[in-house]
Amino acid sequence: MNAPRLPQPTPEALAASERLAASIRAQIDAGGGWIPFDRYMEAVLYAPGLGYYAAGARKFGDARSGGDFVTAPEISPLFAQALAAQVAQVFAHCAPCVLEFGAGSGVLARDLLVALDARGAAVERYAIVEVSSDLRERQARLLTGRPVEWLDAPPADFEGVVVANEVLDVMPVALFVKRRGEVFERGVAVHGGRFVFEERAAAAQLAQAVAAIEREVGALPDGYASEIGFVAQAWMRTIAQQLARGVLLAIDYGFPRREYYHAQRLMGTIMCHYRHHAHADPFWLPGLNDLTAHVDFTAMADAAHEAGLAVLGYTSQAHFLLNCGLLDRLRDEHTHARANEAMRLLSEAEMGELFKVLAVGRGIDVALIGFARGDRTHTL
Question: What contacts 128, CB < 8 A, 6 or more positions away?
């Protein structure tokens, strides 16, 4: 691939990217000249000290601040205020505890604590599971003095609300391609000193997963390439085993399976983000770009159901936030700036339609307010 025309990083950042690239090339050499893409994705995002989420570069924020992207909680406190309505409803049926995965800058935790307290639904325990030591330090600075603890792994027998906002999209994915009726796995090799895609016959797990998709959506055309989130599915099963009572809210961009593997979506959903520029070259400056894949929400719901959780709702972010009273919050605090923030959260042209909310849980026998209108569980 040709390098995209994007802002150039500092010499220090370039040097760090090259160190990571050298490490990945060594892994490829050790693997006989090839590694699967999910292993490459894990390295560029999470390699200690060098991966995108493990190094010190700024990630969250607008382009002027040097960030690569902005998440919904950073767009507006309206997001956390609306989410608090759903969390407070669940708190009436289980312990008032929150477990947040991948808390980013910590803004969601801060605003959610404030919003819940304002509702009289104070949190007994707020725990964050964060794999990035750099982000954990930033979160700790922002949340100084607040009742928050950090964990290396989710606790067993957790009761409360689990929040995963833009977490599933950065879990490594396996890539596949159909060739002449057969399934091949797309991995990473080195040619001429550069990373390139290279295909090998798919192992049984990947071939069987593609066959299961085709049984549901129909035969995929020759040359069709996409991805499967085995890591995200395993994560969902793990959380299901550890959730004794409560609800998991997964908020991310993605589709149900029939949309995800539509015949016209020929090259999957892999996307990179650098300084608010989106591009599709995962090999450009490894470690300096966020690397994501959309979420197959049908796979997430299936994994949860198979592990004993009930699917409690699935809808667009816009419907969820409206159901949770975002417009009421906007009326209470109406300014031109807040109105613009609400538009970004709700508009189909922004985050309102692309982002979805999936709720799964155990021991919660109540209709969740976030899915009162516009529930799309039937599409999963």
Answer: 99, 100, 101, 103, 106, 109, 136, 139, 148, 149, 150, 151
